[in-house]
Amino acid sequence: MRESLGERVLALRAQREAASRRRRTRIVKQRDGLRCEVDGKWLLEFCGNDYLGLSRHPRVVAALRDAAQAHGVGATASHLVCGHTAAHETLERELADWLQAPRALLFGSGFMANLAVVQALLGTGDVCVQDKLNHASLIDAARLSGCVLKRYPHADVDAAARQLAAQASGAALLASDGVFSMDGDIAPLRALAEVAQQQHATLYVDDAHGIGVLGPDGRGSVAAAGLHVRDVPLQLVTFGKALASYGAAVVGDADLIAHLAETARPHIYTTALPPALCVATLEAVRIAFDGDDLREQLQARIAQLREGAHARGLELMPSDTAIQPMLCGSDARAMAMAAALEEEGYWVAPIRPPTVPEGQARLRITLSAAHTARDVDGLLDALARANELVRA
Questions:
Q1: Selected catalytic residue, list 181, 221, 319, 368
Q2: Do the domains at 23-52+292-391 and 58-289 have one common CATH topology?
Q3: What is the reported pTM?
Q4: Catalytic option among 150, 209, 267, 371
Q5: Is 181 a catalytic residue?
Q6: What one-character-per-residue DSSP string does 312-333 give?
Q7: Would you call 209 a catalytic residue per the annotation?
Q8: 22-55: pLDDT as tens digits
Q9: Domain 58-289 adopts which CATH fold?
Q10: Are the beta carbons of 155 and 131 closer than 8 angstroms?
Q11: CATH 3.40.50.20 fits 23-52+292-391, yes or no
Q12: Where are the domains of the chain?
């Protein structure tokens, strides 16, 4: 008797319910800066990725409004048909200039960009070596490409070298997040670049959470490590984090980017980003390039949170970035902590497996340059009370 998909999904839902792993979409009715109205209650957000506070920046909002009047809403077609406008071209050029690379190529999302890179460059007989904590899109991309996928223990450069050496034939891609989205730590990029060079592999860095925040002029974790396009031939830039927009680009070596433009299915077979969104993103890029004051404000909030947590006996995971996780252990405890914080008006996301390893459920606290010192002090006090409440 063939299994019913309807019965299967109901059984799987029941399993998730029993394990405190049901997921539901929260509806934000309206926003006022970092305050959100959710389910009839106003919450101060500490779970988004708007690291520089640009999502409501007057220049970015005005750029989107004016560009929509000029360009309309959609691009109407893929880049290779008639969807590539002067707005797309300008954004690609200025992204490449900002990151000191020859060329950039736009994509609809970071997930699509990662699928494009790995699938367009690797196939049967090749190998993709990845950090075990890489984003799901990189793992899926390797599996779909047909290459051999090897995953080394988190930040273990020696293990990465051994895995590359064990697969000596075919092409090799060494892929890593720049900033790990659930832990907040930074990849050992200089050491990985050395391994890639020794093993004749290409290093690809997904810098979704580093761009705009780290390095000189906000050029990300690659620049912060003192590396250039010759060391990291391909780098992912996403627009939905510090750049507060939507979409992504792959930046790097001109020949590799040209190959992606002509062969990458997620680029060829999808509608281009709306031109008005490209104009708004470009304005965010320009602000980020000149945004040392915003990065200083963000760093001050990071230091305040970590020092305040230590003073209150709260243990945060090691991180120098805007992502500041607090390990809870069990799924139930993470959910209870998040609920207690919400009762006090703070929105912090509980993160559970399979997003993180078993037994490592956590609160993923994220900070923005738009948070004030008062905001962070209030969160710290609420965290301390929630910790005592759940412990009791």
A1: 181
A2: no
A3: 0.94
A4: 209
A5: yes
A6: TTPPPPS-SSSEEEEEEESHHH
A7: yes
A8: 888 999 999 999 999 999 999 999 999 999 999 9
A9: Aspartate Aminotransferase; domain 2 (3.40.640)
A10: yes
A11: no
A12: 23-52+292-391, 58-289
